Structures are given as structure tokens and as C-alpha cells.
Amino acid sequence: MAANPCYVAYHNFWTIEQARAEAIAKFDLHEIKRVTEHNRNLVIYWARKRLARGISESPNLYIAAGAEPYTVPAAPVQDDGIEENRNELVPLRTCRDILFMHRMTVECMMKIKNEYPMPASPF
User: Fold this and answer.
1) pTM of the model
2) CA separation for the pair 14, 11 (Å, rounded)
């Protein structure tokens, strides 16, 4: 259900185009932050799982050349079966990208329409 335009007041008396542009910009900023944070947290989780798995498999670590080995306590690391599934990474799709693709599609369709006009309908 759309809002009645006579009851809508735009911020700072913007035009509808300005309001749409601001909404797209805000959405894109939020989406970039959301997707980046999700993907970063997922990659950090995978890195921690690799480190934990590596430490549990070889508990004697050498900090530097010639240093005394550091032995990790023999507490078993639970392997919850999580694997690095790169399909879990979320692709970043902004409104700007989507609108650009729509515009390119419309331009291509207009070229096709001009190069190959539709025959007149017999009806």
C-alpha cells in the first residue's frame, strides 16, 4: 500500500528524486557495512578454526628460531565439523549496482527495438 503523496513531507523540502537518491545512498552504506561485517566475521571464524585445529594436531610450537618450545595444554579441541564453505560468503549487491544493470538492460533493449522493429500486428 503506497502512501498518499499529499501526506508525505520530504526532509528539507527535497524533491522526490532527491529523496530517492538519499534513500539509495543510505541503503547502500548500510548494506556495505552489513555484508562486510558478516563476511569478515565468517573469515575470522574459519581462521580461528584452522588455528585451533593446527594447534591440536601439533601442540609444540616454536615462537622464534632458537627459542624454547611452547607446549599447548593437551585439552582436545572440539571439531564441530564446520568447513570453509565459500558459498556462505554474501556477495555485495548495492542499489546503485542494480539500478546500473537495469539501465544497461533498458539501453540494450532500446537498441534492439530500433535495429529490429516489430512487424505491425495484423489485428
Assistant:
1) 0.61
2) 6
